[in-house]
Structure of Sulfonate ABC transporter:
Amino acid sequence: MSLADPRVRGGYALAPKPSLRASSARTAGRAKAADADASPRGLLALSWAAPIVVLIVWEALCRGGYVAPHVLPAPSKVVQTAIKLVSTGSLFHDLGVSLLRAATGFAIGGLIGFSLGVTVGFSRVAEAAIDRSVQMIRAVPFLAALPLTIIWFGVGEGQKIFLVSLGVVFPIYINTILGIRQVDPKLLELAQVQGLSGGTTIRRIILPGALPSILTGVRYALAVAWLALVVAETVGAQAGLGFLAMDAREFLRTDVIVLTILIYALIGAGSDSIARVLERRLLAWHPNYAKGAR
């Protein structure tokens, strides 16, 4: 290296500046290493840190008199109310009714959504015949459909299960189609080269390849199922968490209303956790999920 070289100043060779790409790669590598070092228990504790902080601040504001009890009761008051309802057995009864409605509606809606998604995913003709109608129905809000479902089914169990099923259909339908159509074309070419039959290709390549997208739809559908049930249980219900909240509203029992909201939130978090476990188990073969499965 000559002294005329611009990289030489005062007789000393200057080290080349690291490129932006190399710097970004090192930063990404350090981030991945930090994620790898994080223990599952530490991540679990971190996920609950924000809710716990909110509860502590909430309790402090209520005890300090900054929030009126009839507007928003303290968490300790909500816990006392929950203990009373558990002791009478009414809370478990209403919770069981809501869980049964949600599970039944989810099973029916999930089966319909998956069946329609598979049909449309494999056939452009079926897409032309079905998809536009499904998308139009998907755009109708639950509250707009509520009066019509009451006319059709009354205010009994059928109306509530129908609304839950209707909400579940669309996430699973859309994600099933996306999953099928995003399967790697090279895998399909490999199936043809290997001489696999159409049924074997679907069973061994297409459906497993679509499974990550389908399970994403399942996770979203679980949340929608509870949203639909909340709407359904606000009209004419004689049992369930929605009935418990509406009955408490008549007597200005904000503690009971807040309790039902917290129960919905916990059920939603629990449902998502179950879906995540199912996802890791079913996708243990997938490179993006293999580490989590271990």
The radius of gyration is 27 Å. The chain has a mean pLDDT of 83. Residues 40-67 form one domain. Strands lie at 8-9, 12-13.
